[in-house]
Please model this.
Amino acid sequence: MSNSQIIDRFGRPHTYLRISLTDRCNLRCFYCMPEDGIDLMEKPSIMTLEEIISITKTFKELGVNTVRLTGGEPLIRKNFEYLIRSLADLGVTLKLTTNAILLDRYLDLFEEVGLKRINISLDTLDKARSVFITKRDYYDQIMTNIQEAVSRGFSIKLNVVLIKGVNDAEINDFIALTKNQKLDIKFIEFMPFKGNKWDWSKGVSQEEILKTVRSKFGKVEPIDNPKHSTSVNFKVAHHQGTFGIVSTITNPFCADCNRIRLTADGKMKNCLFANSETDLLTPFRSGEELKPLILQTIQQKKYSRDGMDLKMDADQYENNRSMTSIGG
Ligand code: SAM
Ligand code: SF4
Ligand code: SF4
Model:
């Protein structure tokens, strides 16, 4: 039973805060970062580490028990170690989403503070394709760091955004990785954000993914979906690892949503697709009490995808932020 006070109009308690530490990134994944880049946030408008810690404490007092650090690339944030230690001291469960380029620097720290669950973006197992997708050449470093994290017993999920004609032929190569390793693969349907040239004809649906996996591995077994999961999860018989599909476009799992987002410039977003945001940082800086503002904001949350229907409304998502400045 959750003791969260952050309850929306649909009775959903919100216990999970995803904080974007920066809108900067050391990769340029084409589906995330617009070709011409983004207007980067001015430094003074970005939450300081002390502000992040203090605002997180307020969310914790309202019942948030899990915090995921994301970005942009969270590991490029200066004094990241200090932040992690301070957040761990608040007693929340910490999770991380990263591209893994700098992961090796922090594994000892993560072991020390008990940060065990790490989601890592890895869209391809092919070096040349990785350079094409990310526009940078860090593939070897990323793979070395993933192997190290797996061998040290971290719980690793690989996030794979599938795009037709780019990496959809690799679906079963990713599944093969789960045969002898306790790895989770999370296939993600391509989602629309500002400037990412979204076109669902380039997307790969849950149905297509399952058909491809079954064509090679035969029967796949559904496994229990953890509460609040936004993916539907499966296992190939006798494989050690599992796979899941985040079918936000074709079959969104919003009914049990418990997520709140906080952007690096301190705006609270009720949903990944929400255009409306509530500035928490300005009132925080002028000494206002944030709790009433947070509780009011959650009342504006819509049931699913901020009200977008299956066609996904370009007027709406082009007025959202780019994914790199939301924090996926
Ligand atoms: N830089 C870190 C990383 O890549 O893991 C954290 C931030 S990134 C924005 C978080 C997640 O969002 C990544 O797994 C990425 O694949 C996913 N993502 C970005 N753009 C997306 C899109 N258009 N559709 C679906 N997922 C997307
Ligand atoms: Fe950077 Fe992550 Fe976006 Fe790739 S998906 S550009 S690594 S923020
Ligand atoms: Fe929650 Fe919005 Fe994601 Fe649905 S689309 S799970 S409502 S954040």
Remarks:
- The first helix runs from residue 49 to 61.
- The first strand starts at residue 16 and ends at 20.
- The pocket of iron/sulfur cluster (ligand 2) is lined by residues 25, 27-29, 32-33, 71-73, 99, 121, 323-324 (CB under 6 Å).
